[in-house]
Design goal:
Layout (H helix, E strand, L loop, with lengths): L1 E6 L2 H8 L9 E4 L6 E4 L1 H6 L7 H10 L3 E4 L2 H18 L5 E5 L2 E5 L8 H16 L3 E6 L2 H13 L1 H4 L2 E3 L3 H10 L10 H11 L4 H5 L3 H7 L3 H10 L16 E12 L2 H21 L2 E15 L9 E13 L2 H15 L4 E15 L14 H17 L38
Parallel strand pairs: 2-4, 7-8
Antiparallel strand pairs: 1-6, 1-7, 2-3, 5-6, 9-12, 10-11, 10-12
The structure holds a DNA duplex.
Length: 427
DNA sequence: TCTGGGGTCCTAGGACCC
DNA sequence: TCTGGGGTCCTAGGACCC
């Protein structure tokens, strides 16, 4: 059996943890740059605020209902996420916990006796809430897809379920499937939902479950579709991931706080994204040999505003995998120069590192000098400083000092758990 | 004035090999 | 009159997730 545990309105719950005055109030959290609504408390959902809606379009509704609005505070969410995951790993062996996202984890419950699923899940929910202050929902079922469905049902029927839903009898699974919208299944997005309905008249999960595998292979993304059919039929086909697995790609991309027109600013921004990406790379003890830089423009400067983004990118296969910030910045800058067009209005840029290998297995190149030991020691020192201070205390000048392009975060809460000077105070 | 960021997996099709 | 079969590797792009 598998379980999925999912924090309820995670970002909003994090904000509310330190704001008892907001416990029963509508709360929303915005994306970077205060662009869209990316988390809503139940009260905010009731008011009719929708997910991913642009903030400026919802301002009236927000003001009218006195909704508390926060810019995203990733220091806080990251730290609380770690507490939730650590709690799970205290209760279950670590290899039975797959952290699926900042607010979700799959659990392998195959070692539990069949009668104990419900009490176990209920205890888990309670413990996490008691230890971290974060409310969670738990779905339990024979496969990941079915567990996701159970989780959804738990959230939908909070009062009756107490946020725990177990599907362990075939009749219960059948019943749930026949009432479940096929588009709400984990793995069926908008495109497939439309296609299933329009071309095949499939609207419920139960109808999909009965389709043959050969059909799924043809119409539902090949083996992905086959796995879906099997999971719906109770045969686990999406295994739990090894927690030690490394990322295959690392990206840092940002929308600018205000448009960028000058090459120097674009270079600064990209250099700082490279720095951040390289840091993530070193944190998993790896080096990358493929570097991709992209920029997004939006019409000509001076034109009337219309949101019509166009992306362009340049990439480079480096002679040897690297994790040194200065080296990577050195490779990235010519790509920026090549991308830059005078007079363009730049809205966004980003960097992707891929072809990632463990640092210890970097293939040396006959034609480039050995990676120097000093460089690595320098990186370690910089990382230690920045980590202990939780911020960019040391950075490359090429990444800019003024940072005019920096994103807007006008309503960010305090970093209660990661900064001494921002601790929660009780008067 | 204004619309996020970071990932994974898979397939099709072209280039190339013997 | 007539032009194979089997394979790998790579890239671009599509679909999905939170």
């Amino acid at each position: 059996m598998k379980a999925i545990i999912d924090c309820n309105s995670f970002y909003c719950s994090c904000e509310r943890l330190y704001r008892p005055d907001l416990w029963n109030q509508p709360v929303v959290v915005l994306s970077n740059n205060d662009g869209c609504i990316i988390a809503r408390s139940d009260e905010a959902k009731t008011i009719g605020l929708s997910m991913a809606a642009p903030y400026y379009q919802q301002r009236d509704l927000i003001a009218k209902n006195k909704v508390a609005v926060f810019s995203s505070n990733y220091h806080l969410y990251g730290d609380l996420s770690m507490r939730v995951m650590d709690t799970l790993r205290t209760i279950l062996p670590p290899q039975c916990v797959e952290v699926y996202s900042v607010d979700e984890a799959f659990l392998d419950l195959s070692h539990l006796p069949p009668s104990s699923f419900h009490p176990f899940a209920a205890a888990l929910r309670q413990t996490v809430e008691m230890w971290t202050g974060i409310k969670v929902s738990v779905g339990v079922a024979p496969t990941k897809v079915l567990a996701k469905m159970a989780n959804r049902l738990a959230k939908k029927n909070k009062a009756a379920s107490d946020c725990v839903w177990v599907l362990d009898h075939p009749e219960h699974i059948e019943e749930a499937l026949s009432q479940f919208d096929v588009g709400d299944l984990w793995g069926i997005g908008r495109r497939y939902a439309d296609k299933l309905r329009d071309q095949f008249g499939i609207t419920t999960a139960h109808q999909l479950k009965q389709m043959p595998e050969a059909w799924a292979r043809k119409h539902l993304g090949g083996v992905v579709g086959v796995r879906m059919i099997r999971e719906l039929n109770g045969t686990p086909s999406i295994p739990l991931k090894d927690p030690l697995e490394q990322k295959k790609m690392i990206a840092t991309t940002r929308m600018f706080g205000k448009p960028v027109y000058r090459l120097e600013e674009l270079r600064e921004a990209v250099a700082s994204f490279v720095s951040r990406a390289a840091e993530k790379l070193r944190r998993q003890g790896c080096a990358a040999s493929h570097l991709d830089v992209f920029v997004v423009t939006n019409g000509q400067a001076g034109e009337q505003y219309r949101y019509d983004p166009r992306a362009d990118h340049r990439y480079l296969q480096m002679p040897r995998a690297s994790s040194l910030t200065h080296e990577l910045i050195g490779y990235a800058m010519p790509l920026v120069d090549d991308l830059f067009r005078d007079g363009q209005k730049y809205l966004k840029a980003g960097v992707t590192l891929s072809m990632i290998v463990p640092d210890s297995e970097v293939q040396q190149n006959l034609f480039t000098p050995q990676q120097n030991v000093k460089g690595k020691a320098l990186m370690e020192a910089v990382d230690n400083l920045n980590f202990s201070m939780r911020g960019d205390v040391v950075k490359y000048v090429s990444s800019g000092l003024t940072r005019n392009w920096k994103m807007r975060q006008e309503m960010r809460s305090q970093r209660f758990t990661t900064r001494w000077e921002e601790l929660f105070e009780i008067k």
